[in-house]
Specification:
Blueprint (H helix, E strand, L loop, with lengths): L1 E2 L40 H5 L20 E13 L4 E12 L6 E4 L4 E7 L2 E2 L1 E5 L2 E5 L9 E10 L3 E3 L5 E7 L2 E5 L19 E10 L8 E4 L2 E7 L3 E12 L6 E4 L2 E6 L5 E6 L10 H16 L7 E5 L7 E2 L7 E2 L5 H9 L7 E3 L5 H18 L5 H10 L25 H18 L1 H14 L3 E3 L1 H12 L4 H9 L8
Parallel strand pairs: 2-13, 19-20, 20-22, 23-24
Antiparallel strand pairs: 1-21, 2-3, 3-9, 4-8, 5-6, 5-9, 7-8, 10-11, 11-12, 12-17, 13-16, 14-17, 15-16, 18-19
Helix pairs in contact: 2-3, 3-4, 4-6, 5-6, 6-7, 6-9, 7-8
Bound molecules: zinc ion.
């Protein structure tokens, strides 16, 4: 993700001040109440079975995600009518139990749940805030792979942060878009909505013909593997075959010009551009493969089976998001923003923060990728950009000393400037300390070791030290963990 202004380090656009709390999700700090009865009676598993936790244990977002199981696959079938903004959904969730489960939670915000089954048998459901509590007819045994199906419908919610930042299901002038960082995916499908539980996805979206008899387009993660014209409706089937955190799941419905191409490594490129933006987005289809080729050399092999971008027309949205395989832009992006969101495919999407506190690993690296790109394009050197951030003369950089990058004080501040600008400064300090050869070796080792997985701050610190053979305690204590602005060394 990148707010339009918060990390803008270039001297020319007149960004006005920093923003904070725009991704606030204070509403999610719920006090959970249990809604269902305890374990059913029966065999040994039943006796040992207990409810799965209502949260994944994230300190910043205590109720996001759930305990007791790991999702391996989401099969989502959505039926959406843009004219009425009505959504009908069927989610088939394949998961493996990590304990004997008498019941378990899914995260779901709004919508009406019509029915649920576990292993094909009717299950009881109860709602409590954004928790959907599912009680199977029989307990699920530890390690068992089980399938849960939930059917639901209604008008999906847009979540609005304290300062107007939008996520969730958002209507556009010609359809809608679904964006999930950090909490929005629960507005359009039930799931284990925490970055630590990644899964593969099949997303099928059925849309009708409009008044002119044209079908709406549907763009989502991964590759378009089938398109079925049913006369009055069309169903498009997208498949994300590499694991994905649910906050990176995305669907855009509307009208798009589609530009297809190839990366230098022959991966398919799919760029969807809203006609309202086609004039300003002219360079995007050419830049995507160029940036992917550039990043490949620095960060290691591109981690997914396709790439691209979605350039929508949604002037009310003030950020871009690294939705997996195709980052989402609310308007035509400039080069730096495109670099930022594409760099996230390595840092954030493939190697995903284990908790929301580890966000700086994703945002600091994506911001640093912008610095590297500018340096390589003959702009300021990364040293000069570092100095500009340190001096705080750049637009939007004023807030980067508010807290240490790896310790946002609340969930509402995980997208604040310290996570981005000071995060990138930490990365630059590592590069300075270990030299270019060891530095890029660290980045490539990081993306290889944690490819399609999760990683945290402790692991990054350990890797920097082990690959460089240096004790970097002082560096990290000063630049990453110290509450104060470090003094110039
Ligand atoms: Zn970002």
């Amino acid at each position: 993700m990148r707010p339009r202004t918060a990390t803008d380090h270039r001297p020319w656009p007149a960004a006005s001040g920093t923003r904070s709390g725009w991704a606030s999700a204070a509403a999610l700090f719920l006090v959970m109440t249990t809604a269902c009865a305890g374990p059913a009676t029966g065999d040994g598993a039943a006796a040992a079975a207990r409810p799965g936790a209502a949260g994944a244990g994230d300190r910043l977002f205590p109720t996001l995600g759930n305990g007791g199981y790991d999702v391996t696959h989401y099969g989502l079938a959505l039926d959406y009518v843009p004219e009425t903004n009505h959504l009908k959904g069927r989610a088939v969730i394949t998961a493996r139990a990590t304990q004997d489960l008498s019941r378990f939670d899914l995260d779901l915000s709004g919508l009406r749940v019509r029915a649920a089954t576990v292993r094909g048998a009717k299950a009881r459901v109860a709602r409590s805030g954004d928790e959907l509590v599912v009680t199977p007819a029989r307990p699920v045994r530890n390690h068992e792979v089980f399938e849960t199906t939930v059917t639901y419908d209604g008008t999906p919610r847009t979540i609005e942060g304290a300062d107007g930042g939008l996520e969730g299901w958002i209507e556009t002038d010609d359809g809608s878009t679904a964006l999930g960082e950090p909490t929005g995916s629960m507005t359009w499908f039930p799931g284990n909505h925490h970055p630590s539980d990644k899964a593969t996805y099949d997303i099928r979206v059925t849309v009708p013909k409009d008044a002119e008899g044209d079908f709406y387009d549907v763009v989502s993660n991964g590759e378009l593997i089938a398109e079925e014209d049913e006369g009055e409706t069309v169903t498009r089937h997208w498949r994300a075959k590499e694991p994905m955190a649910s906050y990176l799941a995305h669907v855009s419905v509307g009208y798009f010009e589609i530009h297809k191409g190839w990366t230098p490594d022959h991966l398919p490129v799919y760029v969807a551009v809203d006609p309202e933006e086609s004039e300003d987005a002219g360079a995007v289809a050419k830049l995507v493969p160029e940036i992917i080729g550039w990043a490949d050399e620095r960060f290691g092999p591109y981690p997914f089976s396709s790439t691209g971008a979605v350039v929508d027309h949604l002037p009310g949205l003030d950020y871009a998001l690294e939705t997996q395989t195709k980052p989402y832009f609310a308007e035509a992006p400039d080069e730096a923003l495109l670099v930022h969101e594409l760099a996230h495919q390595w840092f954030g999407d493939s190697v995903t923060p284990r908790t929301w506190k580890d966000m700086w690993l994703s945002e600091g690296m994506a911001t640093y990728a912008e610095w590297l790109w500018e340096e390589d394009q003959g702009g300021r050197s990364t040293d000069e950009i570092f100095e500009d951030f340190y001096d705080g003369t750049d637009a939007g950089a004023g807030g980067i000393w508010a807290f240490p990058p790896a310790d946002p004080p609340s969930g509402g501040r995980v997208s604040d400037p310290p996570v981005y600008g000071r995060g990138a400064m930490v990365v630059h300090k590592v590069r300075e300390a270990v030299g270019d050869e060891a530095f890029f070796d660290i980045l490539r080792t990081w993306t290889r070791q944690h490819r399609h997985g999760n990683a945290d701050t402790r692991q990054f610190v350990a890797l920097c030290e082990s690959r460089s053979g240096k004790d970097l305690t002082g560096l990290f204590d000063t630049w990453l963990f110290d509450k104060k602005k470090p003094t110039r060394m």
